[in-house]
Amino acid sequence: MSVIKLKKENIGKGYLVLINPDYMLKQKANNLISLDTEYKNIKLEITANKWLHYILNKIKSGRQIVPVSGYRMLEEQIEIYESSLKENGEEYTKKFVALPNASEHQTGLAIDLALNEGNIDFICPRFPYYGICQTFRENAPFYGFIERYKEEKKAITKISKEEWHFRYVGYPHSKVITDKDFCLEEYIQYLKQFAYPNNPLKYENYQIYYIPYKNEQDFIEVNKNYTISGNNVDGFILTIKEE
Hints:
- This protein has helices spanning 46-58, 74-88, 90-96, 131-139, 154-157, 173-179, 184-190; strands spanning 2-5, 32-34, 43-45, 65-69, 110-115, 145-149, 162-168, 201-203, 206-212, 219-222, 226-230, 235-241.
- It is an alpha+beta fold.
- Strands 4-5-7-6 form a 4-stranded antiparallel beta sheet. A 4-stranded antiparallel beta sheet has the order 8-9-12-11, with no helix packed on it. It has a two-stranded antiparallel ribbon with strand order 1-10.
- A hairpin with an 8-residue loop joins strand 2 and strand 3 (43-45).
């Protein structure tokens, strides 16, 4: 049995943190590693990195898919945003470039991918809905990744469709989000009906709970097969895997 203290500072940590203009980044990324020697300047959080490589190897993508952008420091996000304002204008920038500290790239959990066809656009790389790119897209939810920004969700996410942008949230969350056609904002809200400890969301051999943050004295006791993440809004998401 493990005792988990529900600290306010941890609401902004974990694989399920919601990052957008309403819920800005609270914690710096850690456990970052380079994708490989060829793309040593592109980094991801270590677990997201592992599963990205697993998917690419599984679908035998070879050099057909290339990474464009992973983790970004605050200074880099500021530079990208300001450069886009100058080069592309305010309307374009607001559609496709997140505000500094509202960018998932600063978590180390987001990756932009491109079809390797030369002349790749850094802001809007092409990652079409067919061929090897679609094969990646279809496999991604089974290994923790979601396509984060879809056209039909832009009124909620405040970001236009980004076919190239994938976010690691971990399994089974990635599969639930995809199966229900949620964006992450909708999923965070949806989970609030599954309050700990008596009303879990059941999926396969997992139980998923929402735990609202109340005070620093709160704690829970769980068995060892669990993960817990802040939602960066108002509480935590506990995931228990049954044997």
